[in-house]
Amino acid sequence: MTGGHQHVHGAPAAPTAQATPTWKLLATLAIAGAAAGWLVVTVYQITLPTIQRYAGAKIEGAVREVLKAPARWDTLYLVNDALTASPPADADKRELTKAFVGRDESGKRTGVAIVTQGPGFQEIMQLMVGFEPATGAITGIKVLDQKETPGLGDKIELDTSFLGQFATRIAPVSGVKGKPGAPPSQVQTITGATISSRAVIRIVNGAIAKWRPLVQAYDAGGAK
Amino acid sequence: MSAINAPEPGAADFVPGAPPPATVYADMWRGITRENPVLVQFLGMCPTMAVTNLLANGVAMGLATTFVLVGSGLFVSIFRKYIAHEVRITSYILIIATFVTLADLILAATFPDISKALGPFIPLIVANCLLLGRAESFAAKTGPARAVADGLGMGLGFTFSLSMLSALREILGRGSLFGHDIFGPHFEPWVFMMMPPGGFLALGIALLTLAFIQGRLKARRARLAAGAA
Fold it and tell me: A16, A114, B12, B87: which has the fewest C-beta neighbours closer than 10 Å?
């Protein structure tokens, strides 16, 4: 096939007549690498605002959903394991972990929404959890990202009656199988998606256990 | 031995293994039919199995791969005389990876839902043997026009195969097509078709159908030849 590059069986490989000098190989790769890098960076910069806008719109929609359409919301940032409304100027706000505090028309707090994640059946899943920090009552949850088994585990996102149960429960919730979950803390798991359902329950409980003290500490530190 | 190694007399530009001359149209049509990457060459089986559970995913994956095939084919062909033989694979992979990254970014900025559904499989086009295969065996040995035609044909053949498989799997596995319900609420979806084994079954059905059609055509040609003789 490659005429000039076959060598006789058993004999050491004879150098081909047109062996390319090393500097030429390096130059080829350096120029190609620089051109490729420039192209990728250019397209990255062009597409970045659009991609970030989609991500932002997705989070906003989720906040509206889990906090039951608040009149407005404030954003708190997690800095050094404490919530603050004004992060240090040198921190990139987009990179910080956030909590969204929903308020009704009078400015009264209706709930706090946070993004959390944990292991599902086979992949990390990402949820948004809305809850009332004073009581631990859940206002709503939404699946932001999951890679559960299509047709089985992905019902945790598609079966709205499963997620809907959480809105009337108080954390920590527990799962029951095969019968309707009784208020205030039981949730019925999905048939065929028991492990994924339990994963959701575990992630929600863990998130509220972690975030309730944080919000309460923020309240104690002189809330606005 | 020396007969094999000797370059063809008088051919200064002779490239070993260069594809036989053909029209641009023939180069393109070949990828869609006779040398279809999935159904004939069995290349790119990983995305074929992984993302063909929904028609939208299959089409998006096919078009993204087409974009990379055309782009990398063009660039490999343009620079084929400047890329030293020793570093050609590295250079091809660099060109392919660049176009894959572009495809990934453009898809994320235009169809975020599909981009999310395809997840890591778009970046993994880099490792699709179809790309390096076409770069090494075709684009590196022909002019840009033929290389682009080949990339387009292979890409469309890939898209066609993935669309067929994913349509079959979505209809049976979810009772819908492009997300639109087609059987109504009384259809019990074959969840099996949405899962990895369903991909193998769908591919098996497609290959069996193809073999059946080819067998019939061959028999018909044989009958016609016998009749003519």
Answer: B12
